[in-house]
Amino acid sequence: MAMDLLTPADGLEPSAPSERSRAFKRFWRHPMGKIGVIGLLFIILFSFVGPLIYRVSPDATNLLYLLTPPSVKFPLGTDELGRNYLARVMVGGQLSLIVGFASAFATMLIGIAYGLISGYAGGYVDVVMMRIVDIMLTIPGLFILLLLDAMFSPSAFVLVFIIAFTSWFGVSRLVRSEVLSIKQRDYVEAARAFGASSWHIMTRELLPNVMGTVMVASTFQVAGAIITIATLSFLGLGLPPPTPNWGELLNASMSYMYQDAWWMIYPPGICLLITMLSFNFISEALQGVLDSRR
Does residue 59 sit in helix, strand or coil? Predict the structure, then answer.
């Protein structure tokens, strides 16, 4: 007896790829997306896996090897106290990345919540909330950073709080503008007509539709937070020694740049450059994916 051929009506036809998988493929086909992911992965492995493989204390001093240039024993040389510079650059990346991601996450939470409430409420509530943002944006961000840094004792938690407190204004305006354009659409009006609560509309109808823009903004926030940490540390206002980070290493290297100690300047600067370029490339690729989805 001949076997019946399977037809699409049997329900066994292969399912179409999901929108998420198609978006991922578009992102990965973007040349800047690949470069950005590879660069960021390299920095993460260098900072977190590197110290597990290269087991050298970043704080151990050796007075016999002060300002020693790179060699087999010291791949990136030593600093003014004879400390292994490669180990310090690796460990310094951990603090920069952890505080950068944590502060960017806190920034996005505050900015998203503030922008959602302002855009959805509208009217006088929106006007008052946006005027507060406008006032905060007129104050130089570096001034607020320096003021808060001087008021509180430096720590990783305080640094996350300071960066988040001074960085959420732009995110809130971005989210608010997206919400204003989305909340008038038919599916939002339908949800409101069926008696959906404001919380349901904001979290289930509006928030998922602004996440694309939020994802792009979050990559810039992480890059900006890492640069802010480096700036504060470079000015001597970051975390106190001996905790190393790339900004603190750059600050310390400035005193020896005229003593031919070039190996103290370039490694942390190159790590910062790779990190910033990686996030910028990822943001560019994400924007390309969002444009194609639109």
Answer: coil
